What we know:
Structural class: alpha/beta
Strand order of the largest sheet: 1-2-3-4-5-6-7-10
Order of helices and strands: HEHEHEHEHEHEHHEEEHEHH
Mean pLDDT: 92
CATH superfamily: Divalent-metal-dependent TIM barrel enzymes
Low-confidence stretches: 1-22
Shape: globular
Helix content: 40-55%
Largest sheet: 8 strands, parallel, barrel
Number of helices: 11
Radius of gyration: 20 Å
Number of strands: 10
Distance between the termini: 36 Å
Amino acid sequence: MKLAKLFLSCGLVACNLASATAADLSGQLGIQTWTLREMNFDQVVAFAKKQGITNLQVIAKHIDPNSPREEYLKKKAVLEANGLRAYTFGVAGTSLDKEENRKLFNFAKDMGIKLIIVEPPDFRILNNLADLAKEYDIKVAIHNHGIRSLYGNPLVVRTLLKGLDPHVGVCMDAGWITSTGMDPTKVFQEYDGRVYDIHLKDKKVEKTQGDDVSFDTQIGEGQGNLNKLLAELKKTGWTGVLAIETDSNDFARDPNEFVAKAKAFVEQNGR
């Protein structure tokens, strides 16, 4: 009987461990409101509720950190009343002036935001952002665009991170990584725990006589091999938010199908 109980106990532990490692990534979905750039704030709220997405990565069009404090706190209250949250803001403007950047961190503190997405125009800005991130205990994540952008080469970003406090990490844009010909899964692995946010975006690249041309696709229909990335996120127990995003103006004009297909892709491949 004792042996049977031991086997039962071990079996329950194994089941619990399996459940822990088999997290459903669809519960970590969010949306970058750049995807909803054709909408105003109230329309964004209605859209997110309709889609069942509670995590919003907001842009300044929808909640402006430079607006009066009372104004953005009213919007925070609207989000909360509708079961939504601004989990992060970005891509945020930043400055070599540390005290100017402090305003951004005060905004984040007021909003209950624990992560700010940035793409500083000067590497030196990262030092004062790191100081503020540590002071406020609010993480900062560096966003990437194409290979010719300041942070488009992951090797450059990894080199920068070596000299910065762990409060500074990466917002990995899977679509722009794909546009460089790199594998988002491999890039995620090489960041070794410093990816704090992901822009869930897919692209195809067309070869031309000059520069290669990339364009957005439905999530899962591009060259990003995003099902492989989701498998890696599950394997490592990554706990960040997958923010659905598109740079396509066509998708942005009517994002319903784009977002619905993105959700379906994660629900199918993220369990």
